[in-house]
Amino acid sequence: MSTTTNSTPPGATARTSLARTVTDVLQPRNALLAGMLGIGLAAAGDWTGLLWGFLGALCAGLIPAGYIEWERGRGTWGDRHVVDRTKRAPIFFVILGSIGAGSVVMVLGNAPAGILVAMLALWVMTIGLLAVNTVWKISVDSAVASAVVALLAVVHSPWWLAAYALSVAVCWSRVALGYHTVAQTVAGAALGAATTVAYAFGG
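The structure corresponding to this sequence follows.
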């Protein structure tokens, strides 16, 4: 009588499920929606900042996410992660164009300087991601998660740095799911944190 051996290590399924949940909940469009609303509120000092923040989130996160879903529907990519770095360039160009267009609207609409500078900082970060991606795969999810926390810490309070626990969780999930190596997530997080330099320079 033969028996079937389950080769899956105990707990591996639960670990993968948790990693999937973390990476989906904290994906760039969600992180940017929460982060840009917070940055817009700080920049304007009243509820109007939420509108500018939503515009920022729309251009930096929601439109690029929509583009990815559109390409998925066409069969270009299997999922939003686009694991093959050689196919990622169009996404970066969409992000750059979308952030650029949103920034123009902000300038014409006399948006608070803080939200506009945050947009430009994210634009600079995207240039960095695109440049690195031409030669080496880097984690965009880790970069965005790190950038959002770093920018919130600058515009609100250093206590926001405690939220880096969420950025670490994103890095862990990307490695656990096999999308990136530890080095690729650390590099992404470091580049995301560097947006504060661009923010300070722009401000």
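Residues 1-5 have pLDDT under 50 and may be disordered.
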